[in-house]
Amino acid sequence: MKALQFNVSAPRWLMAKMLGALMGRWVYYSSPLATIKYVDIPEPGLPSEKWVKVKTIYCGFCGSDLNLIFLHDSPTASPFTSFPCIIGHEFIGEIVEIGKEVRGVKKGDIVTVNPALGCAARNISPPCPSCSIGMPGNCENFAEGDIPPGMFIGICSGVNGGFAPSVVAPGNQVFKVSDVSNEWSVLTEPLSVGVQAVLNNMPEKSDKVLVIGGGVIGNMIVQAIRALDIRCSVTVIEPSPFHAELTGQVGADNLIVNENVFERTSEITGARIYKPMIGTEILMGGFNRIFDTVGNSSTLNMSMKILAARGTLSVVGISGDVKLDITPLWLKLQKVQGVYAYGLTTFKGKKREVFDISLELMKKKKVKLDNLVTHMFRLEDYKEMIKVNMNKGKHKAVKTVVSFI
Measured between alpha carbons, how far is residue 273 from residues 157, 178, 324 in Å? Predict the structure, then answer.
């Protein structure tokens, strides 16, 4: 079967980075050094009787897929990946084969998948501390066990991702999507990122919240706040007027689009602006909670300077090495926390899987998803999909999806 395969080695990484800087980003997807290729792979079999096989219907293209293709990720995570791998972790499909030890699903069920490859998927017992509390996305054994290294389906050489007609997944990590349209349910994974981020940094009604980035994840964070009936003030920083307006339609109170962030923050929060002898301003006061979906040096340094005393910065975006001025951290007693993946959480007094919460919000139409899947592609048209994702503002693209139907 045909699939999208990512592959890189240290020498090719260096060569591609050098040529990419000189000749443009086409090097990464349309040259002899391309990191992503359209290849033939064998049909996958079940790794064990605890897995299921899924016939892919849709697979979403994530910003992390784009970062992977263009080699923007930090090499620090490389021990927990393995190549070549078939990318794609935001997928839905129909169950076509079930291991004998799987319960709760049947052939023909339409499901989405928590793609984490934690201890259970790796047949490791006893589970690590993260997996023991239901958070396989933060497993300590990503490079151990019965399958090759890989934090999730899509960056593991032993388990192909959703940019292929068939994929296998741990049976205890599939979630039925009945009563939710297939186009909506392909957004379960990114919505779960937003829901988990908000649950981990829950705003109070009186808080002033900032979301940096109005793309898919930023939009999902705004929607999660509103879907969870949190009536706090929400501001979004987004350079694209198109994407900013979409966040306004789903609950953002204030939009900062190509404006002076420090001045607008002062207007919105009442913070006071101070100018150092050298460098950018710093605010006393500011936003109580910030969700940074970009996560580079520029946005993180800005976040800490406009975050209020005792405020919390959730780092949702994944980037490479960053350089930080940590003065605001100690000066204002701030908290900086990572956001990655999803799992079991306490919701309304009960233990729930975040994927289940997200599907419930979709079913009850507490989130607005009908205008977020903007582009559909065939798998063989992946180069055009990459080009669209390189300039989403120009193409008015939000979520791009490969269709197998």
Answer: 50, 51, 20
Beta carbons of 362 and 184 less than 8 angstroms apart: yes
Q: What are the b/e assignments for 319-348, b being 16+ CB within 10 Å?
A: beeeeeeeebeeebebebeebebbbebebe
Beta bridge partners of 401: 60, 376
> From CA 281, how far away is CA 270, in angstroms rounded?
15
Question: Tens-of-pLDDT digits for all 405 residues of the chain?
Answer: 999 999 987 776 677 667 666 666 766 788 887 899 999 999 999 999 999 999 999 999 999 999 999 888 888 999 999 999 999 999 999 999 999 999 999 999 999 999 999 999 999 999 999 999 999 999 999 999 999 999 999 999 999 999 999 999 999 999 999 888 888 999 999 999 999 999 999 999 999 999 999 999 999 999 999 999 999 999 999 999 999 999 999 999 999 999 999 999 999 999 999 999 999 999 999 999 999 999 999 999 999 999 999 999 999 998 878 999 999 999 999 999 999 999 999 998 999 999 999 999 999 999 999 999 999 999 999 999 999 999 999 999 999 999 999
pTM score above 0.90: yes
Any idea where the domains of the chain sit in the sequence?
2-187+371-403, 193-338
Distance CA 1, CA 6 (A): 16
305: how many CB neighbours lie within 10 A of its CB? 24
Round to whole Å and give the CA distance between 157 and 94. Answer: 23
Contact 196, 138 (CB under 8 A): no
2-187+371-403 belongs to which CATH class? alpha beta
How many other CB atoms sit within 10 Å of the CB of residue 14?
A: 11
Q: Looking at domain 193-338, what is its CATH homologous superfamily?
A: NAD(P)-binding Rossmann-like Domain (3.40.50.720)
**Separation between Cα atoms, residue 113 and residue 385, nearest integer Å:** 23
Distance CA 238, CA 256 (A): 6
Query: CA-to-CA distance for 388 and 36, rounded, in angstroms?
Result: 16
Measure the CA–CA gap between 349 and 345, rounded to whole angstroms: 10
Enumerate residues 6+ apart whose C-beta is below 8 A from 278: none
